[in-house]
Amino acid sequence: MKNPDTEDLYTRIWTLVSQITRGRVATYGQIATLAGSRRHARAVGYALKCAPMPLPWHRVINAKGEIAFPPTSTNYETQHKRLRREGIPVVNGRVDLKKYRWTPRDREFPDEYFAAET
DNA sequence: CATATGACCTATG
DNA sequence: TCATAGGCCATAT
Question: DSSP secondary structure string, A11-49?
Answer without folding.
Answer: HHHHHHHHTPPTT-BEEHHHHHHHHT-GGGHHHHHHHHH
